[in-house]
Design a protein that fits this description.
heterotrimer, A: mainly alpha, Four Helix Bundle (Hemerythrin (Met), subunit A), 2 domains, about 75% helix, C: mainly alpha, two-stranded antiparallel ribbon, about 65% helix
């Protein structure tokens, strides 16, 4: 018997695959970005279906609320309404790329089917663990004890990235003087 | 139909199928699109696909290590998007061009 | 009907109810805004239709509904029409996550020969357990409505307004999130319900350097534990809901009307409902975090106490329902006071210049929010409760 969580998974999986395909296919980059937003939101609720509600919230804030807004804003500033060359040229090259992707997908699916399809479904979590506070506390404990070095390294990386992005955006010209 | 019902019952494998499909979609996009910004978006799609499988494994194994990895992936993805977009904006301001093939001219 | 189906139906009904509450409050707020601005500027405001001009709302609604729908010639139809709808969604969803009153507890009863088990109806649309994280996530989607409106109208002013608006929202979201970290550390939870429970109690009390401090003339509210965070949070919500003094996206002197230049009639009304919805979410959040939520100050008045002392003679189900109504009214009074502050500020302060706005967000509010976080962490580490 399908539970409502299973039903939720199928709906969200359909939405995310449909709009994920739209990201790749849409000729107007703005539509790509908007489809990406919908994919991000459905991925966030897939995290929720896996009882990771804190990550779902973070996914909404970071991806849907910040990263994709950045993409949309940059595209709007570029004003690329009429994109002529959407896809790469060359029938042979494109065919090879598509076949390679299909083979990769087939290999992945067959591997998952042969390895994990016989596994039992998720065990229901005990009631104490389903409370998101407990799960979030576990996450924080793991993040600040086992992975503290990686956490600090990521912090340093973010600082470098921030400085780099600001520097890049303040560059006025290339290696040579501008004509004007 | 008990057999179909067993196959439809959502388990780890269903999340992994979804993750694989999204990953390959992003891969196709990275290989075939021309617009730099769209390529960056497709990379985000691939990272999201990986995140789904991380969280699914974390739920399956009942420990939080997978979720910690998702945290790191999200941070790196945000950083990558910031730098990638800053580069794209800089190149666009200079040359009015976002086609990835054009970036070959930046050599030397 | 299974348990899942029952809960899903219940949540949908509650979310529709909360959405309707939000929509119905908007005309009242519009009326209040116009009257208050009138009195502040020494004029009358709308006073022709009905007592105190209250029927002006109905007249406005009829006017908005019967206006001709308009579509710009070079607009992008999908985005143009989706944007007003997107403006409503974040406000309504975020408001549904906030507990507006105490839970209504229904004891087991028999009806039509069947047993109906004990129910607990929370006065919130849904509860994911991570409360504030989800609310921040959902309300961060508000930027898309502005961007879609700006892009869909194919108008330079709209686009400029939209880009300004989204840049402003992203910038202030940082200060908003960071200013909450302090109070979240004090409460030690993400759940709104637990925050409200922790703000119950007779008077402000805390441990300072090993001594118990009790200040009996102050209520046990979060704002007194973390005043700096409260101030930054409240300021940032002004920017989030695009109100004056931060309403650069629709600065009429420079950008005609910003992102809704090309909108009229009902679509424009939907943008207004979205803006007022953001204000309501902001006020409700401030109430829950810093002003004790739906509880009453000074006294140990829990829902159970009210049910016993005030409605003790009644059937427990009715008593529980009436208790819920009482606490909802308390919440409504607090929210309305904060909404009045929104209106008051709008007619008092002038608008910022755009670079000043960004400076304030990045160079003033963000460092102070960070300082607040560090200060609170140190305080908790050395002496707390």
């Amino acid at each position: 018997m399908l539970t409502s969580t299973d039903f939720l998974f199928y709906v969200l999986a359909f939405i995310s695959v449909f709009f994920g395909a739209a990201v790749v296919i849409a000729r107007n980059p703005i539509y790509s970005a908007m489809s990406l937003v919908i994919t991000m939101i459905s991925v966030a609720f897939l995290f929720g279906a896996l009882d990771a509600w804190f990550l779902a919230g973070v996914q909404l804030i970071v991806y849907a609320g910040a990263v994709t807004v950045l993409f949309v804003m940059v595209l709007m500033l570029f004003d690329l309404k009429h994109e002529m060359k959407t896809f790469s040229k060359g029938l042979l090259g494109n065919g090879v790329k598509l076949i390679a992707s299909g083979v990769t997908l087939g290999m992945l699916l067959v591997y998952i089917w042969s390895t994990y399809a016989t596994e039992p479904t998720f065990k229901p979590l005990p009631p104490a663990a389903t409370s998101s506070i407990k799960a979030t506390k576990d996450l924080a404990t793991s993040l600040f004890t086992d992975y503290i070095f990686a956490f600090e390294a990521i912090g340093a990386l973010l600082l470098i990235i921030a400085v780099g992005a600001v520097t890049l955006s303040r560059i006025t010209g290339g290696t040579h003087h501008a004509d004007s | 139909m008990p057999i179909l019902d067993g196959a439809l019952k959502v388990g780890l494998d269903h999340y992994l199928y979804l993750s694989a499909v999204l990953f390959v979609l992003g891969m196709i996009g990275v290989m075939m699109r021309r617009n730099v910004v769209v390529i960056l978006m497709c990379i985000e799609l691939m990272l999201n696909a990986v995140n789904i499988s991380f969280v699914a494994f974390s739920r399956y194994a009942e420990n939080v290590n997978g979720q910690v990895m998702v945290f790191f992936v999200m941070t790196i993805a945000a950083a990558e998007a910031a730098v990638g977009l800053a580069l794209a904006v800089t190149v666009f301001k200079k040359f009015r061009e976002v086609n990835i093939r054009f970036f070959e001219h930046l050599k030397g | 009907m299974g348990k899942d189906a029952f809960e899903i139906t219940l949540n949908i009904v509650k979310m529709i109810l909360i959405f309707l509450v939000m929509v119905q409050l908007v005309p009242v707020l519009v009326w209040a805004e116009r009257r208050v601005s009138g009195f502040m500027q020494n004029r009358f405001g709308p006073n022709r239709i009905g007592p105190l001009g209250l029927m002006q709302l109905l007249a406005d609604a009829v006017k908005f509904l019967f206006k001709e729908p308009f579509f710009p010639a070079k607009g992008v139809a999908a985005m143009y029409h989706a944007a007003p709808v997107m403006a409503l969604i974040p406000g309504a969803l975020a408001l549904a996550a906030i507990p507006l009153s105490s839970a209504v507890i229904v004891e087991p009863f028999q009806w039509l020969g069947r047993e109906f088990g004990p129910y607990t109806f929370l006065a919130q649309g849904y509860d994911f357990g991570v409360g504030i994280v989800m609310v921040l996530g959902i309300s961060s989607l508000g930027a898309y409505s502005l961007l879609m409106a700006g892009w869909g109208s194919s108008n330079k002013y709209s686009l400029l307004g939209a880009v300004r608006a989204s840049a402003q929202m992203i910038s202030y979201e940082l200060a908003l999130g960071l200013s909450l970290v302090g109070i979240l550390m004090i409460y030690g939870t993400f759940s709104f319900q637990e925050m409200i429970n922790q703000q119950l109690g007779q008077a402000l009390h805390f441990n300072a350097l090993g001594k118990e401090v009790v200040i009996s003339w102050l209520p046990n509210w979060g704002i007194f534990y973390n005043p700096l965070g409260a101030l930054i949070f409240f300021c940032a919500t002004f920017a989030e809901s695009n109100r004056l003094p931060f309403d650069l996206p629709e600065a009429e002197g420079e950008l005609v009307a910003g992102f809704h230049t090309e909108y009229g009639g009902f679509a424009l009304l939907m943008f207004y409902i979205g803006e007022y919805g953001h204000m309501m979410v902001a006020s409700a959040l401030v109430t829950v975090f810093y002003l004790g939520g739906y509880t009453m100050p000074f006294y140990e008045i829990t829902p159970a106490y009210v049910q016993q002392a005030w409605f003790g003679g009644m059937h427990p189900n009715w008593a529980s329902l009436l208790t819920g109504v009482v606490f909802a009214l308390v919440m409504l009074v607090k929210v309305m006071l904060l909404l009045w502050v929104f209106i008051w500020v709008r007619w008092t302060l002038p608008r910022f210049r755009y670079d000043h706005l960004m400076d304030l967000g990045w160079k003033t509010m963000l460092p102070w929010a960070l300082f607040n976080t560090i200060l609170t962490a140190a305080w908790i580490a050395f002496s707390w409760r």
